[in-house]
Amino acid sequence: MTANEIRKRFLSFFEGKGHKIIASDSLVPKDDTTVLFTSAGMNQFKKQLLGIVTDFRRAATCQKCLRTDDLDKVGKTAFHHTFFEMLGNFSFGDYFKEDAISWAWEFLTKDLKIPVEKLWVSVYQEDDEAYSIWQDRVKIPKEKIIKLGDKENFWPSQAKTRGPNGPCGPCSEIFFDYGSNIGCKKPGCSPACDCGRFSEVWNLVFTQFNRQEGGVLEPLPHKNIDTGMGLERLAAVMQGKLNNFETDLFTPIIESLNKEVEGLKAKIAKNWFTTSGRALVDHLRAVVFAICDGVMPSNEERGYVVRKLIRRCAMLAKEVGINKPFLYKLVPSVVEVMKEPFPELVKKREDIAQIVKREEEAYEKILKEETPVLEKKMLAAREDNKDKDSLSQELGKIAFAAYDTSGVPFVVAKTLALKLELPQPSVIIFDNLMEEQKTRSKAASSMVGDVFSHSALKLDLKPTDFIGYAVCNSSAKILKIIQGESEVKEIKPGQEAKVILDKTPFYPEGGGQVGDTGTIIKEDAKLEVLDTQRIEKVIIHLALVKEGKFKVGDRVQAMVDIERRLAITRNHTATHILQAVLRKVLGEHVQQQGSLVAAEKLRFDFTHFKDITQEQLNRIEELVNENIRRNDGVAPPCDMSLDEAKKSGALAFFAEKYDEKVKVVSIEKYSAELCGGTHLNATGQIGLFKIISEGAIAQGIRRIEAITGLAAYQFMRRREELILELTNSLKVPEDKIISQVQKLNSALRDLNKKLNEARLTALKNSVTQLIDQAREVNGVKVLTQKFPDCDFDFLRTAVDLLKPKLKSGVIVLGSSQESKAFLVVALTEDLVKNKWDASQIIKEIAKLVGGTGGGRQQLAQAGGNIPSKLDEALDNTIEVIKKLK
Predict the structure, then answer these.
(1) CA distance 813 to 859
(2) Which residues contact 585 (CB under 8 A, 6 or more apart)?
(3) Is 249 exposed, middle or buried (0-12, 13-18, 19+ CB in 10 A)?
(4) What pLDDT does residue 267 have?
(5) CA 341 remoteness from chain centre
(6) pLDDT tens digits, residue range 327-346?
(7) Distance from the first to the final alpha carbon of the chain
(8) Which of 222, 202, 277, 191 is nearest to 51 (CA)?
(9) Average pLDDT, the chain
(10) How many CB atoms lie within 10 A of CB 486?
(11) Contacts of 341 (CB under 8 A, 6+ apart)
(12) Is the pLDDT confidence value at 569 over 80?
């Protein structure tokens, strides 16, 4: 049975049991700061599991998940993965243990026809109810039911003793027995043994308690079911495989890998394909799905995980001599395997491959730059560690630092050690440092606070009636006032509070659009609304009492700042036009990655893998303004189902989590987007669109900032005033400004050239005099000199003139131009041979001018932004030199 068939049968089975089938959520969780990635099927059901009633009480999913807890085990075991799919059925205060257990058994034994004798189960050691259901209702022999403790059969595993607070409960797991000839082969082997004979197929979690401070387990009034069954493990069982990597979810990708390394096979150890090769394929699946869900490689959070996985694949490839980008060539095979359940991969296949390739190329560049640095540090370590063992340990530390900061693989350090005839870097030291880093990483990324903590739970209110599409001024009633975390009945002048109304024209921040501001008034009182936010579907007004008092139950008038709202709305409609134009000019691959729609400007982030030329940028701006001048109609937001919206071709923002019912905003036939923001009636109301900046913000992601309406007009007016000022200053007409500036620049260059020649002549005539001014510090001559209004080129030339005459010593020269300071440090060869380092000296003295520096042992330079401290920095050179002796 194929994995695709298993997935369909699971969802069909639970649909027949009254479950609503919910599509897999994005790998990027929304409104959940406890995890970087969606790591379990229950992530998207947190509010339902907490008792918030929705339109369904039963659900089933096949959720894509990403975890990095056990990276070192991936490829080495039969079932650890970075990316995997979790089959799950859920009950939110509906059915409980008996149905969950009996249906799980029915699906496995009746629907999939797994032999009953091949299945075992475990229950929590204190859960007599689950034990009884398995033994008395399902009729499993008691010798095949094992009782396990908190670690194995309670979720979360440390909830009772260490927390976190929140929903928790016992588990019951179902295991497949591969047979007594597998694993340890001991007579008493059971699912409690991790020898490999038993595969945990399904975990049934019974969330029946609410863990409170002090470890108190309070029974939940509405008990829930949360189950998880790894599709990869179930596929292995159904396809008669002992290893997940031998199933149809992996074998086509592994075959593609084999073809790519065909010429290297003779050099590759056989076990590379069954360990490192499998890990490479597994990590690639995670990379493909993460990028598809909008996570671009970067140095922060989710992006860093993707970058780390790509580099890890590159390291695995280097083990067998693959030293060029090739991972991107395997992307099509991943897409081919997964396209049936995830058709969005097909449209994005080439984009994903291109992003992976660029990241591989960037990593190769880093290795070329960092390997010489690593070599230098290893040679320096040899000078300081004559003992072979201590040198090996130091090399282990250096190798780890190179891996940790720049991603240089350990194998590179090992190869360098052989080349330099050094002892091998200590694997023990490297591994110990790696473990310490993992411990820090896990502590930093572990779930903090209460499970499913969410302030919306405390509101206990119906969704706010938002009427802001039609009006900006409305009467309303105050339902609740919150100060800090506490509800209050009344607020007075000078106090800030969160005010909730029964209905409001104020748009809450969302979808990139900032929240409205304005006023809420009654007869003798006034509230200034500073911002508007949303928690779930409740709209919160962050307000300051300016006059009078407000209390719960008051009838008030809510008035949005109309001018600000109109400015925001112009920018929002312009953003939609911009995206349509970008896709027309740059290509269909353009996809929104983020946006800001504020009153003063708009910002739009999007996928694109090349620099945008000025010609393209001009064309983009021209087309947006053409659409504005046409005064195209903007259709009012249209309500439709999410599936209908997607089928219609409406564009969606990757990081946004949409409800089943969505709003689609359309502009003529060229733009349709899922959007709940406020918009104009016609594009002509935008007035004018002007791009003010464009550039890359991450690998494969670019950003455009633009202004519209009055802001755009004022921007152009300032440009006009600047041109007028230039014409007056240069005393030429507007069309002659450029030629006049070029003429002046040419004249300035000639003057600077003559000035430098005069300076050099003066310097040559005063070399002897300058050398005589050198001071002696602990037997070393130190020459410091400040030159007025010079650049680095002049200072380096001065060094070349002074160094031969000084013969032995340190030269430190400085200068400044406008708001910049320049420093150069040079050493004579005898000092270099004695391990003096100009780059170390300049780092110390550059601090005073607000800069940093670097270079070679012989010559280093630094720039700073505090030229007023230049004299002090030069004087401090003497103290720095004293410390070196």
Answers:
(1) 11
(2) 616, 619, 620, 623
(3) buried
(4) 62
(5) 25
(6) 999 999 999 999 999 998 99
(7) 76
(8) 222
(9) 89
(10) 8
(11) 4, 7, 24, 62
(12) yes
Tokens for 414, please give them.
Answer: 């090992």
Cα angle 371, 377, 381; round to 5: 140
Residue 415, token pair as written in the block: 């190869």
List helix spans (H) across 407-446: 410-419, 427-445
| Residue 834 pLDDT | 84
**Which 3 state secondary structure label does DSSP give 57?**
coil
**What pLDDT is attached to residue 231?**
97
* Alpha carbons 802 and 822: distance in angstroms, whole number: 18
Question: Are the beta carbons of 660 and 22 closer than 8 angstroms?
Answer: no
Q: Which helix (H) or strand (E) holds 154?
A: strand 154-155
pLDDT bucket at 881, cuts 50 / 70 / 90: confident
Position of tokens 């257990």?
101
Inter-residue contact 144 to 120 (CB < 8 Å): yes
Reported as a single tens digit per residue, the pLDDT across 515-524 is 999 999 999 8
> Which H, E and C letters describe 389-408, residue by residue?
HHHHHHHHHHHHHHHHHHCC
Residue 622 structure tokens: 């021209």
| The two three-digit tokens of residue 438, written as one number | 């993992």
pLDDT of residue 441: 53
Joined together, the tokens standing for residue 829 give: 């060869």
Residue 101: both structure tokens together: 């257990």
477 torsion bin: left (phi>0), alpha (psi -120 to 50), beta (else) = beta
Positive/negative CA dihedral, 156, 157, 160, 161? negative
CB atoms within 10 A of CB 143: 8
Q: Note the helical H segments in 790-856.
A: 792-806, 829-833, 838-846
Q: What is the mean pLDDT of residues 71-82?
A: 89
| Dist CA 315 CA 306 (whole Å) | 14
Instruction: Report the C-alpha gap between 393 and 384 in whole angstroms.
Output: 12
Residue 807 CA: distances (Å) to CA of 603, 782, 799, 831: 58, 11, 12, 10
b/e burial code for range 58-78 (CB count within 10 A of at least 16 → b): bbbbbbbbbbbeebeebbebb
For 455, the token pair is 């302030």
CB atoms within 10 A of CB 437: 13
The DSSP result for 681-703, as a single string, is SBGGGG--EEEEEEEEEETTEEE
Burial of 182 (0-12, 13-18, 19+ CB in 10 A): middle
Handedness of CA 349, 353, 354, 359 (dihedral sign): positive
pLDDT tens readout for residues 481-517? 999 878 999 999 999 999 999 999 999 998 899 999 9
Check residue 443 and give its pLDDT.
47
Residue 439 has pLDDT above 80, yes or no: no
Helix, strand or coil, per DSSP, at residue 884:
helix
Closest residue by Cα to residue 448 from 35, 69, 68, 30:
35
Place 263 in a pLDDT band, splitting at 50, 70 and 90. Answer: low
Q: How many residues does the chain have?
A: 885
CB 236 within 8 Å of CB 219? no
Cβ atoms of residues 140 and 134 within 8 Å: yes
Helices (H), 679-828: 709-730, 737-772, 792-806
β-partners of residue 224 are 92, 207
Report the range of poorest mean pLDDT among 14-28, 141-155, 159-173: 159-173
Sheet holding 859-864, edge to edge: 775-777, 780-788, 810-817, 820-827, 859-864, 852-855
Higher pLDDT, 717 or 832: 717
Phi-psi region of 115 (alpha: psi -120 to 50; beta: other; left: phi over 0): beta
Pairing of strands 518-522, 490-491: unpaired
C-beta of residue 521 within 8 angstroms of C-beta of residue 559: yes
Print burial letters for 758-767: b (CB count within 10 Å at least 16), e (below 16): ebeeebeeee
Separation CA 341–CA 23 (nearest Å)? 10
What the block records as the tokens of 607 is 């996928």
